[in-house]
Specification:
Blueprint: E1 33-34, E2 40-41, E3 48-51, E4 57-62, E5 67-71, E6 79-82, E7 88-98, E8 109-110, E9 113-114, E10 116-126, E11 131-139, E12 155-163, H1 171-174, E13 181-185, E14 188-189, E15 210-215, E16 226-231, E17 235-236, H2 239-246, E18 276-277
Parallel strand pairs: 1-8, 2-18, 10-12, 11-13, 11-16, 13-16, 14-17
Antiparallel strand pairs: 3-6, 4-5, 5-7, 6-7, 7-10, 7-12, 8-9, 10-11, 11-12, 15-16, 15-18
Length: 280
C-alpha cells in the first residue's frame, strides 16, 4: 500500500493506514463509540444554526472511496454556526459511509450499535482571521423499528464537512489546524427519504439535539482538526438506496471492476477525551 492507494480492502484498509499515516494512532482520532451513560450534558452548548443554499452545490463525483457532493465555498452561501463552535463554518462537501449489509456501515457507534450508514457534511469556518472546518455526520440505520436507542440497528452515516473561514484563508490551511474543521453527522435508518436538490438539510432529522467531541478526519490523511457534531435522531433510508451506494466502483478505468461494498473505519480509542451533549 502507498499513501495514494489506501482503501477499505484486506491489504489497504484501516488496519494498515498507520503504515503511511502515523497520525492514525494519534490522541484524537475518529470515529468513536458514544456511550450514553458516560456523556455529560453541557448547558453552555448552543442550538445549531444552519443555512444551506442548494444552488451552491457544484459536482457529484465518485472518489473511489465514497460519492462526494462538492459545494461552492468561495462565499457565505451555506454556513453553520452555533453549537460548540465559536465562529462560522462554510459548507465544503458531504459524503456517505456505508457497509456491505443494511445492519452496519456507520462509522460512529452508539452504545454498541452501528447504523446502516453515516453521512458527512464538511463546512469551513468563516472568520476574518482564517478558516476552520466542521464536519456533519449522518448515520443511516437499517432497522424498521422506531428510532429508539435500544432498537437502532447499524447502518450508513452521512458526513457534512465545513471549514473555519473566519480564522483561516482556505480549506487546505484549516484542515491542518486543531479548530479548522467541523463535521455534522446524521444516522440513517432503514426507511425511505427524499434526496433531491442537493440540499443537505433534506437529510437532517427534525430534532437537532447532538453530541460533540474533538476528533479527526475518518479517512487519510486523518488530520486531527475536526469538531464533530453528531445528531442524536436518525433519519430514514431505503434498502434500495443503500444497494445503489454499494454498486459504486472503487477501481480505475482499465482495471477489473470491483464494487465499493463497505467504506467505514472502526471506532478509535477515546484516550481521555470528553463527549458532551446538548440535551439531558
Amino acid at each position: 500500500m502507498s499513501r495514494l492507494s489506501w482503501g477499505y480492502g484486506e491489504h489497504n484498509g484501516p488496519i494498515h493506514w498507520n503504515e503511511f499515516f502515523p497520525i492514525a494512532d494519534g490522541d484524537r482520532q475518529s470515529p468513536i463509540e458514544i456511550k450514553a451513560k458516560e456523556v455529560k450534558y453541557d448547558s453552555s452548548l448552543r442550538p445549531l444554526s444552519i443555512k444551506y443554499d442548494p444552488s451552491s452545490a457544484k459536482i457529484i463525483s465518485n472518489s473511489g472511496h465514497s460519492f462526494n457532493v462538492d459545494f461552492d465555498d468561495t462565499e457565505d452561501k451555506s454556513v453553520l454556526h452555533g453549537g460548540p463552535l465559536t465562529g462560522s463554518y462554510r459548507l465544503r462537501q458531504f459524503h456517505l459511509h456505508w457497509g456491505s449489509a443494511d445492519d452496519h456501515g456507520s462509522e460512529h457507534v452508539v452504545d454498541g450499535v452501528r447504523y446502516a450508514a453515516e453521512a458527512l457534511d464538511l463546512l469551513p469556518r468563516l472568520e476574518c482571521h482564517g478558516t476552520n472546518m466542521t464536519y456533519c455526520s449522518f448515520d443511516l440505520l437499517g432497522s424498521r423499528d422506531p428510532p429508539t436507542l435500544a432498537s437502532r440497528a447499524t447502518g450508513p452515516q452521512l458526513h457534512v464537512v465545513h471549514w473555519n473561514s473566519e480564522k483561516y484563508p482556505s480549506f487546505v490551511e484549516a484542515a491542518h489546524e486543531p479548530d479548522g474543521l467541523a463535521v455534522l453527522g446524521v444516522f440513517l435508518q432503514g426507511k425511505q427519504i427524499r434526496f433531491t436538490n442537493f440540499d443537505p438539510l433534506s437529510l437532517f432529522p427534525p430534532s437537532w439535539d447532538y453530541w460533540t467531541y474533538s476528533g479527526s478526519l475518518t479517512v487519510p490523511p486523518l488530520l486531527e482538526s475536526v469538531t464533530w457534531i453528531l445528531l442524536k435522531q436518525p433519519i430514514n433510508i431505503s434498502s434500495q438506496q443503500l444497494a445503489k451506494f454499494r454498486s459504486l466502483l472503487c477501481t480505475a478505468e482499465g482495471e477489473a471492476a470491483a464494487f465499493l461494498l463497505s467504506n467505514y473505519r472502526p471506532p478509535q480509542p477515546l484516550k481521555g477525551r470528553k463527549v458532551r451533549a446538548s440535551f439531558r
